[in-house]
Amino acid sequence: EVQKHSVHTLVFRSLKRTHDMFVADNAKPIPLDEESHKVKMAVKLRTEYGSVLHMPTLKENLREKGGPNTGDPYGHKQYSGNQGQELEYMVTGTHPYPPGPGVALTADTKVQRMPSESAAQSLAVALPASQSRLDANRTAAGVGDIYRHAGMSERSQPPGVSVAMVEAGGNKNSALVPKKAPTMPKPQWHPPWKLYRVISGHLGWVRCIAVEPGNQWFVTGSADRTIKIWDLASGKLKLSLTGHISTVRGVIVSARSPYLFSCGEDKQVKCWDLEYNKVIRHYHGHLSAVYGLDLHPTIDVLVTCSRDSTARIWDVRTKASVHTLSGHTNAVATVKCQAAEPQIITGSHDTTIRLWDLVAGKTRVTLTNHKKSVRAVVLHPRHYTFASGSPDNIKQWKFPDGNFIQNLSGHNAIINTLAVNSDGVLVSGADNGTMHLWDWRTGYNFQRVHAAVQPGSLDSESGIFACVFDQSESRLLTAEADKTIKVYKEDDTATEETHPVSWKPEIIKRKRF
């Protein structure tokens, strides 16, 4: 009687039998087919070295290689002129000579010899002047050399290989020399930053932060629906403002008037008079939560961005909506203003960055390089450049057209905020509570910080929503998910000897996207 087995057992046995049958052949290379290898070499020869095949081979080169009859590694026949005479030049090439390796020579395609000096001189005259003055040690590529390097790319040739090349027109010459790969320049040394104060007082996530132009105090907005004003030197609470009915997502203090602007998830944009600590203006128009705002540095214009996929430009005094900037296809997460063109920059959850024409209210440029939501944009205070942050990369760009500069890779998290100072320190803050500090010019990541959460908070409440440098740029303030504001300063005791740059001149691998 045949014993019955489960399907699982039968399949397993079949697998084992198959494995045992083929285990001996495992990882065996496929045997090389001579014919196809010759065809491959012929194609490579013609495509990569077609421009130098018609060049003359100097006799010094022939002697060095052991004469014209030295066998080549692929078993192709070598043809020469009369054996009794020494050849001064041997002309090899594709036209009117053999069209490629392995092609039989006929009376028409036979390699010609030029025993007379006058013929050699006439050949030299036919070449460009610079070509005819090549030294004996810098010879043209012989057929043997070409076969030898046919399997190698241009960059993989040994250093010092220099092959004279006459291009198709016959009037240009250049050298096939290995190019040196670009390397990262040495980054500027920056002292490390250390945490020196933790300020608590909010009852919810601290979502936004701004320092006033006089550098005396700073303001924060929170998920507890309040706006709090703090003394910058002591960290003491000066004032709380209530009025929003949902999370406050953006705050900014005007340098041109005693006003504070705020926006929130309640769709409201408010203007507070700081002499009376009261709301004096509302800006109505957004159809959903307002995620960010910025003031124009030279004119009385406020720009806000919202989950309704638009950004709006407001006249501060009349409360009129001057333009609605539409074009994004998802929530607009961040907006920045500057005096130079383009005056408005937005980053969106549709993965694009848009540079806007303020006067026309239209898009000038759309940057589509990011693959994920762009939650943060920062403008360099001195250079005509900016950076954008996304979970895939931090990217740097040039104004006015948004030309790509470089990627800053390594902060593998949802980047909520970016800040940069005049010294070239770029800070990126992420949803997982990590903060990376970068050298702006080289993109070198010189410090990584992950501060502990406030006692009593969960580890999951480690997150940085906003960060900003104060006006002196000696303090860095972060707004965090553990309901605190953390203040960092440069470590005064650090020197380049105690904290050296652990930098290696690595080959840069910069991607366009």
From TrEMBL:
CDD domains linked: WD40
Keywords, sorted A to Z: Repeat, WD repeat
Record-level GO BP terms: mRNA splicing, via spliceosome
Transport in keyword set: no
A Pfam match: WD40
The keyword Repeat is annotated on this UniProt entry: yes
SMART domains in the record: WD40 (SM00320)
WD repeats: 199-240, 241-282, 283-324, 325-366, 408-448
GO CC terms in record: catalytic step 2 spliceosome; precatalytic spliceosome; Prp19 complex
Cross-referenced InterPro entries: Prp46/PLRG1-like, WD40/YVTN_repeat-like_dom_sf, WD40_PAC1, WD40_repeat_CS, WD40_repeat_dom_sf, WD40_rpt
SUPFAM superfamilies: WD40 repeat-like (SSF50978)
Self-association and partners: Identified in the spliceosome C complex. Component of the PRP19-CDC5L splicing complex composed of a core complex comprising a homotetramer of PRPF19, CDC5L, PLRG1 and BCAS2, and at least three less stably associated proteins CTNNBL1, CWC15 and HSPA8. Interacts (via its WD40 repeat domain) directly with CDC5L (via its C-terminal); the interaction is required for mRNA splicing but not for spliceosome assembly. Component of the minor spliceosome, which splices U12-type introns. Within this complex, interacts with CRIPT. Also interacts directly in the complex with BCAS2 and PRPF19.
Function, in words: Involved in pre-mRNA splicing as component of the spliceosome. Component of the PRP19-CDC5L complex that forms an integral part of the spliceosome and is required for activating pre-mRNA splicing. As a component of the minor spliceosome, involved in the splicing of U12-type introns in pre-mRNAs.
Family: Belongs to the WD repeat PRL1/PRL2 family.
Name listed for the protein in its UniProt record: Pleiotropic regulator 1
Organism listed in the record: Atrichornis clamosus
Organism ancestry: Eukaryota, Metazoa, Chordata, Craniata, Vertebrata
Gene that this sequence comes from: Plrg1
